[in-house]
Amino acid sequence: MTVQLPVDTATLRAREKAIAEKYIGGTPWLMIAWGLGNFTLWLALWPLTLTGALPLWAGFIIACVCVTQSYLPSHDAQHDIIVPRSSRWHWLNELFGHIVIFPLGLPFRTARTTHLEHHRHANDPALDPDYNVHAPSAAAAIWKSLQNRQPRGAGSKRYGQILMALGTPDAKAAMIDAVLMNLFNLALLCGLAWSGYAIEAALLWWLPRQIAITYINFYLSWAPHHPATETGRYRETRAFRSIWGNIGSSGMQYHIIHHLYPNIRLNWTPAAFRELRPILEARGCELGGLKG
Questions:
Q1: Nearest to 142 by CA among 219, 36, 68
Q2: For the chain, what is the HEC assignment?
Q3: What is the dihedral of CA 22, 26, 30, 34, to 10 degrees?
Q4: Closest Cα partner for 250 from 207, 274, 203, 217?
Q5: Contacts of 157 (CB under 8 A, 6+ apart)
Q6: Distance of alpha carbon 178 from alpha carbon 196, whole angstroms
Q7: CA 269, CA 267: separation in Å to the nearest integer?
Q8: Which of 33, 57, 73, 224 is the most buried (most CB within 10 A)?
Q9: Cα(197)–Cα(144) distance, rounded to whole angstroms?
């Protein structure tokens, strides 16, 4: 069926907004269960593995999944989707955000401050905190992610530089949180190694974090913005088709919806995309052949 669209921009924008508003609001119970369940499972891995109740190889596989999946529930909290700022219960949004992202070893306030800057300046070489993940191909993006985490890697320095340049109270708090988390990471690894659990520390924390960061850099930063040469509301990101599908790409096939309407919860972006698709086509968005 052919959908007839209005030709004037104002009417098109009004129709777009009306559709999007249907997917905004409410309590995202799936994301809440995902975040808290994932954190509980990750926490349980430590006693189960250290006591021998769970084989280390199984603990490693589960840890990789848990650490990788710890970011997205926090991502909804970064946009105040769990509990809106207008609510007196908004502190639960903040508490949730701090807890669920912990397995990734990334402080909530650091993640939120840099992520919101990414939204404001997507694909800007000077101002986008995520710009250093961009590369000409998928293989190059993975290699770039690994390089960025080396002691002199550009990616590690960039986030600190962005926060220092901002100089806001939120940015300063984010920097302090990042320093404290890095110290905690080192203390935990050293403490476990000193206690005779170096292999366990590597397979339950260090290596899963490296795998998770590579995955997140690829699917949440590189793939939805590639080739990262344009800016503007309808061109700074895109829809794309992943060989692993929507679940395997953590819902990022529809990342364009998130940039257009950041307070649509992650699991509702596919439905919003399907309804908004004719409008996005009219707007000249890059949809990568994704039908819905």
A1: 219
A2: CCCCCCCCHHHHHHHHHHHHHCCECCCCHHHHHHHHHHHHHHHHHHHHHHCCCCCHHHHHHHHHHHHHCCHHHHHHHHCCCCCCCCCCCHHHHHHHHHHHCHHHCCCHHHHHHHHHHHHHCCCCCCCCCCHHHCCCCHHHHHHHHHHHCCCCCHHHHHHHHHHHHHCCHHHHHHHHHHHHHHHHHHHHHHHHHHCCCHHHHHHHHHHHHHHHHHHHHHHHHHCCCCCCCCCCCCCCCCCCCCCCHHHHCCCHHHHHHHHHCCCECHHHHHHHHHHHHHHHHHCCCCCCCCCC
A3: 120
A4: 217
A5: none
A6: 27
A7: 6
A8: 73
A9: 31
CA distances from 85 to 54, 88, 90, 172, 273 (A): 41, 8, 5, 21, 26
Place of tokens 């690994």: 146
252 in Cβ contact with 219 (< 8 Å): yes
Provide the residue-wise pLDDT of the chain in tens; the chain has 292 residues: 445 555 578 889 999 999 999 999 999 999 999 999 999 999 999 999 999 999 999 999 999 999 999 999 999 999 999 999 999 999 999 999 999 999 999 999 999 999 999 999 999 999 999 999 999 999 999 999 999 998 877 777 889 999 999 999 999 999 999 999 999 999 999 999 999 999 999 999 999 999 999 999 999 999 999 999 999 999 999 999 999 999 999 999 999 999 999 999 999 999 999 999 999 999 999 999 888 6
Q: Which residue reads 């999007």 in tokens?
A: 20
Model pTM?
Answer: 0.94
